[in-house]
Amino acid sequence: MRRVYDLGGLYTLNLHPERGILCKQALDILLSYARSHPLPVWLVRLQDVAEWWKERSRFRLRISPLAPQSWLVEADCTPRATLLARHLIADYGCTTRWTDAEVRVHARRFIAHCSQCPCIGLSPQTPQEVVAFLYEQGYPVVRCSAEEADMYALYLDIPEGLGMTRQEQVQRRSVLVQQIEQVEAPLLRFGCWPDGHQAALAISGDIDSVTIQDFFLRILEVRQHA
User: Fold this and answer.
1) Reduced 3-state DSSP string for 116-129
2) What is the phi/psi pair of residue 89, to 5°?
3) Percent of the chain residues past pLDDT 90, beyond the cut
4) CA angle (216, 220, 226) in 5-degree steps
5) In the chain, where are the structural domains located?
6) Phi, psi of 37 (to 5 degrees)
7) Secondary structure of residue 33 in the 3-state scheme
8) CA 105, CA 190: separation in Å to the nearest integer?
9) Please, what sign has the CA dihedral across residues 158, 159, 160, 161?
10) pLDDT recorded at residue 208
């Protein structure tokens, strides 16, 4: 859970329901740990996670230049979205501290003051799969030429895409995420989870008894230890 929290991910614990009593102490410790953080952990069903990611997949950020070092930001998203920013100043006092590197922006329409457009520029040769991956990670993306690269927080030219095999895709996506996270430039993104949650925890039930007899034997076993 600590590792998942640091990465802002989802921890799915698959538990046989009839083992719940035997695992009660461990579950209590896990839930207590999940509730102990300043940025909350979303305690959620897997169905709700799936519905949230469908909702989140439609979020987009529109960023338009207003003046030198001023940008109008309009977030097309639901009220549950967690909008995060780094290395910029947002008008109207609409931010609160999120981490050492980022702030949470509560407004959905605001002016960002920063030296570059707080989004990622992509070369025309970069395939659509990279665009889709960056949207999934919550980042705004714009197509531009190499001559315009300095206007943006980061310029990417990845004509080869994200790889063909599963291993290549995992490795290249990981490298790309690390590259973006290390950028010391203005950047906006949608957080992974709704309503200001840093990570998520889902405890899922699994019944895999081979026979009815096996299932009832498990119930008797649990009662003997209760």
Assistant:
1) CEEEEEECCCCCHH
2) -115, 125
3) 81
4) 140
5) 117-185
6) -90, 150
7) helix
8) 10
9) positive
10) 59
Bridge partner list, 11: 201
Round to whole Å and give the CA distance between 205 and 226: 19
CA–CA separation, 137 vs 131, rounded Å? 10
Q: How far apart are CA 125 and CA 33, in angstroms?
A: 46
Please give the average per-residue pLDDT across 140-144, as a whole number: 97
pLDDT digits (tens, 9 = 90+) for 169-210: 999 999 999 999 999 999 999 999 999 999 999 998 776 555
- Per residue in 191-202, pLDDT (tens digit) is 999 999 999 999
Look at the pTM and tell me if it is higher than 0.85: yes
Q: What is the pLDDT of residues 71-85, one digit of tens each?
A: 999 999 999 999 999
E-strand stretches of 58-198: 60-67, 70-76, 83-86, 89-90, 95-97, 103-105, 109-113, 117-122, 141-143, 152-156, 187-190
What is the structure's pLDDT at 17? 72
Which of 94, 82, 106, 103 minimizes the C-alpha distance to 199?
A: 82
Structure tokens at 156: 């990417």
Token pair for 11: 């921890």
- What is the spatial distance between Cα 20 and Cα 222, in angstroms, rounded to a whole number? 9
What is the sign, positive or negative, of the torsion defined by CA atoms of 60, 135, 115, 102? positive
CA nearest neighbour of 83 among 179, 4, 190: 190
95: nearest Cα among 73, 62, 63? 73
Report d(CA 81, CA 78) in Å as an integer.
Answer: 6
Q: How big is the chain by its Cα radius of gyration, in Å?
A: 22
